[in-house]
């Protein structure tokens, strides 16, 4: 069975992706900072689909934790897909750049960029051995558009996009996709803009876009989930 590592997998998009891959028979290594929700997500996937699941709570900024994630995947057979989904906002709720705590910006960069690259570096030897190795870096429209209060988070995602683009050039045997999932109703968005209670799509509704990438394996690059969903 193919094996995927998914960070930030206890809820939202990460959990929805885990369930969709498990339905296709993928074995999974799941990460999140909080142990109980992660364990609940893993048990739900295991009971429904019967695949092998390793749930490892921890912080992706911790190199030892990243090594444990890859070691768990190695025990399952390797790494065919790495999904860098774990994200930090930098401030909750979001604030203008003049008020953005520099420690918050450092945290966003550490989680969204440095840890993502660190996990790629840890997993690269196994992904190179996979016949269809791929990396999905979950981006944001804030990486490409200027939205008030989204500066720190957007800057970190823009940096992640650039790392994805360069990795795609350096590793032609892999597929490296930066994916903007579009608007979603997630805890991350609620923490970012708590006063915005308007309806937003469920994360599960954009998962078919990610599956389309895996099925069609287009060239490495940046993709938007809405555009992928419109393709026939």
Would you mind describing this structure in some detail?
By secondary structure, the protein is an alpha/beta fold. 48% of the residues lie in helices and 15% in strands. It has 8 helices and 7 strands. Strands 3-2-1-4-5-6-7 form a 7-stranded parallel sheet, with helices on both faces. Helix 5 (151-170) links the parallel strand 5 and strand 6 (175-180). Helix 1 (12-23) packs parallel to helix 2. The longest helix is centred in the middle third of the chain and has 28 residues, at 102-129. The relative contact order is 0.14.
Compute the number of helices. Answer: 8
In spatial order, strands of the major sheet run: 3-2-1-4-5-6-7
How do the helices and strands follow one another from N- to C-terminus? EHEHEHEHEHEHHEH
Question: Mind describing the biggest β-sheet?
Answer: 7 strands, parallel
Number of strands: 7
* Percent range of helical residues: 40-55%
Report low-confidence residues grouped into runs of 5 or more: none
Oligomer: single chain
Average pLDDT reading:
97
Structural class by secondary-structure content: alpha/beta
Shape: globular
Portion of residues in beta strands equals: 5-15%
Rg over alpha carbons: 16 Å
Distance between the termini: 28 Å
